[in-house]
Amino acid sequence: MNTHFTAKPLLPSLRATLNKAHLSVALIAVGLASLLLTLIALLALRVYAEHNLQLIARSVSYTVEAAVIFHDEEAAYEALTLIVATEEVANAHVTDREGKLLARWEKPSQGLFDQAGRLMANLMQPPVQVPIAQGRRILGQVYVTGSGGSLLSFLVSGLLGMIICMTISIMSAYHLSRRMQGNITRPLRKLVSVAHAVRYDRDFSQRVPRASIAELNELGDDFNELLDELEQWQKHLKRENEHLTRKATHDSLTGLPNRLYFEGRLKQAVRDAIEHDQQLAVFYLDSNGFKKINDTLGHAAGDAVLTTVAARVKAQLRSEDVVARLGGDEFAVVINPLNDTADAFIIAENILASMNDPIRIPDGRIIPTSLSLGVAIYPTHGRTANALLHSADKAMYTAKRNKQGGWQLADPVATENSYQETLSAEQKHTQTFI
């Protein structure tokens, strides 16, 4: 038969989820804010750079006006160079009104930064054209192209600042996230720990401590109240189970174990005797004249006789010995362990002697009572629980026939014959009762 197992998916922890959420929010917020500020600053710088180029171009137009009028190329070049060489200008040139080039200046490239700056200027800073005028007459044109150095420097510093801000934000978010996680996950971990203790160890004594977050504290209080109810219910079930177990294994009138319980204890006693190579004794007791008492004096008198007999028999035994009511007026006793056979005879005599005092019944009358008792010793009179009980039962009937109020030791010969009869039944009944 094929068995299919479904593996549980690995779920992220609450700590990992909160970490991811906080870091994502911090990155998105800082990234968007930095990007927006950078774009705004670049637009403002573009306007500023364009205005600056306009001023440079006008300054050039005023300076080269005379050179343009006289078509002096050398003077025009000197005037142009004097102004643009110290400004953020990539190139500039002057033309007359026919468009003829009079002077041209171009800033020499100084490496990758200048190239990147010019690319930035081409993208964000268009060239500026200013006319050279005398009154209303146009003498020529001045063309100026920015180098983009300021734009590029600002962009690089902006990106660097954004990275620094993002790093600080991530560290701050991580720190705040850990604090928040502690406030959330600590109560939840304690709640999980208490739930596991209840589930696996049946420990209802633990409680969830107070939390610093209102919702989690309310959850813990509700869980503790639920645990209180479960603890009370568990105690109730335990009492009910104990009551049902005792009811199933004990006699309701005398409070002694019943036949079911006694047979289980007798089988366990036989196993112990075999394991430790020791003896045990089984008594079978019957109340003499009980039927007559029950019929003539009533059930209340019979119940008084049974409870008194049970109490007197139990008083003669050790704490480790077992006395049970098998049914009606029949009782059985297991003496285990039995150190010496003579000890069993002494206990039997003491039990019979305890019946010498008459019993007071509910209507105030006093009636005499006695027991007939059969004794079987393991392994002399049987090697199984059924064989021993059968031997003690036969010995009890022998005692009742011989003399009521006495005891009789089982017959080993009769026991050997009965052993074969009871062995098969003993092998079929293998359940252990505790």
Query: Strand count, sense and closure of the main sheet?
Result: 5 strands, mixed
CATH class of the largest domain: Alpha Beta
Count of DSSP helices? Answer: 12
Q: What's the gyration radius in Å?
A: 55 Å
Distance between the termini: 37 Å
Average pLDDT across residues? 82
Bin the strand percentage. 15-25%
Q: What is the CATH architecture annotation of the largest domain?
A: 2-Layer Sandwich
Q: CATH topology of the largest domain, anyone?
A: Alpha-Beta Plaits
Amount of helix? 55-70%
The tally of beta strands, per DSSP, is 11
CATH H-level homologous superfamily name of the largest domain: Reverse transcriptase/Diguanylate cyclase domain
Low-pLDDT runs: 413-419, 421-434
Major sheet: arrangement of strands:
6-7-5-10-11
- H and E order: HHHEEHEEHHHEHHEEHEEEHEH
Taken together, the total number of domains comes to 3
The computed structural class is alpha+beta
The shape, in one word, is: rod-shaped
Describe this entry's structure for a reader:
The chain has 434 residues and is an alpha+beta fold. It has three domains: 14-167, Beta-Lactamase (2-Layer Sandwich), CATH 3.30.450; 204-249; 252-428, Reverse transcriptase/Diguanylate cyclase domain (Alpha-Beta Plaits, 2-Layer Sandwich). The chain has twelve helices and eleven strands. The chain has a five-stranded mixed β-sheet, sandwiched between helices. The chain is rod-shaped. The two termini are 37 Å apart.
